[in-house]
From TrEMBL:
Component of the Mediator complex. It comes from Culex pipiens pipiens. This is Mediator of RNA polymerase II transcription subunit 7. Component of the Mediator complex, a coactivator involved in the regulated transcription of nearly all RNA polymerase II-dependent genes. Mediator functions as a bridge to convey information from gene-specific regulatory proteins to the basal RNA polymerase II transcription machinery. Keywords: Activator, Nucleus, Transcription, Transcription regulation. Its main location: nucleus.
């Protein structure tokens, strides 16, 4: 009979619905929604495993209760190759035991050895995570830099095209002569006799009249 006092610890977090139902619109409006939990200062338990805030991001194997199979100072690439080779050899030994001696007690030992090798391989791969994070950040920043440079270059190209268009427009303007200035100084005939006298009295600037003629001829 199983012990009734045994505490069952789930390896997965609680369903989100248990938290979502507490943060309804009515609870938030009436200020009845639970406040965020305070930061944990010392130690805590997650999925049945104890953790401490002072622990390293990647804890040593000894802190996790595993025996270290490689020295403190080593080449990770070489050790991963050795572990991979040992993993294959132990797996072949396990297959041989299952074929010839299926009831041998060495079967459990081989399974434990394989589990320990997998833990070491997983641990060594996790030690590359900080380096992977730095490289990922570096690649992202280089990509953003390249995109900004390309955007700036496209803007510069458009700016040069606009400058060339403006220069071409100024170059296509005809040169002003004395005849153009004298004709431009005459008042415009609007067709309204009441406004004609007023227009003759005021007149318009020669350059304005020239621009109006250019627009009319376009």
């Amino acid at each position: 009979m199983a012990n009734a006092d045994t505490i069952q610890v789930s390896s997965l977090p609680l369903p989100p619905a248990q938290y979502i139902n507490l943060y309804t619109d009515e609870n938030i409006r009436k200020n009845r929604a639970p406040k965020p939990p305070p930061p944990i200062q010392d130690s805590y338990t997650m999925f049945g495993n104890p953790f401490s805030n002072d622990d390293n991001i990647i804890r040593p194997l000894e802190a996790q209760g595993f025996k270290r199979l490689y020295p403190q100072h080593f080449d990770r690439r070489k050790e991963l190759k050795k572990l991979n080779h040992s993993l294959l050899v132990n797996f072949l030994d396990l297959i041989d035991l299952l074929v010839h001696y299926p009831d041998s007690p060495r079967r459990a030992e081989k399974i434990e050895d394989l589990s320990l090798l997998f833990v070491h391989i997983h641990h060594l791969l996790n030690e590359f995570r900080p380096h992977q994070a730095r490289e990922t950040l570096r690649v992202m920043m280089e990509l953003q830099k390249r995109q900004r440079i390309e955007t700036t270059q496209r803007f510069q190209n458009h700016l040069e095209k606009v400058r060339e268009m403006v220069k071409a427009a100024f170059a296509s303007l005809p040169d002003l002569t004395e005849a153009d200035l004298s004709s431009a100084a005459e008042p415009m005939d609007t067709g309204d006799e009441s406004e004609t006298g007023k227009g003759r009295g005021e007149g318009c600037h020669p350059l304005d009249r020239l621009m109006c003629e250019l627009v009319d001829n376009m």
